[in-house]
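Cross-check.
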Amino acid sequence: MTTTESTTGPAADPQPPVLAARAFDAVKVYGTGDTEVRALDGVTCGFEQARFTAIMGPSGSGKSTLMHCVAGLDSLTSGSVYLGDTELTSLRERELTELRRDRIGFVFQAFNLVPTLTAAENISLPMDLAGRKPDKGWMDEVVQTVGLADRLGHRPSELSGGQQQRVAVARALASQPEIIFADEPTGNLDSRAGAEILGFMRRAVDELGQTIVMVTHDPIAAGYANRALFLADGKIVDEMAAPNAERVLDRMKRFGD
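Predicted model, tokenized:
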């Protein structure tokens, strides 16, 4: 009699999440002596691919400093930052500039559009500067996602604030970056336009597989994210999965505890 052995072994351990960017023991100090400020005080964190993370905290908590250091816009006093497998702290300034241009997208509160260029030209500008041709299929998908198909020939002065920020979001998406950093992207918008932008960013994660890290003080904005990190006094003090506005607001009320 032949015995057939089962080929089913123990359940495999779940694969660890792939991180688009991460920081290890990140310290950022401004000033010296009596004027020294530790904007980051030993922060270790990671940002998963194809996920939307909100970074929150009171004014002066270090949230923008963390984003700027992870994005290569500022340097650490000590510790390390990685984009994928690339350690940013080991790069020269020219290499950092090329990395930011080729692998990172940015969306800021001030839309930072070139006023003499059309929406389409603003969207393709980073790739034009890099001497790369846009992927037409991807560009069409991005434009469709952010709802700009009928506004591409307009200059920023002919667009509303919400439409200008949509152009900025499309510009960040167009080069297919590994990660997008957004610093208070709805801060200059009314609530309706802000909700539109956040909805577009959410769709970019869900439908286009984009990775987004957003600094915000707005509990409603954080509710669009997969995860919220809370900073206070330069340290991560809490983390929340599947945040919503009510839970985030409740957590923020306890920052003084």
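The chain has eight helices and ten strands. The radius of gyration is 20 Å. Passed to J.P. for a second look.
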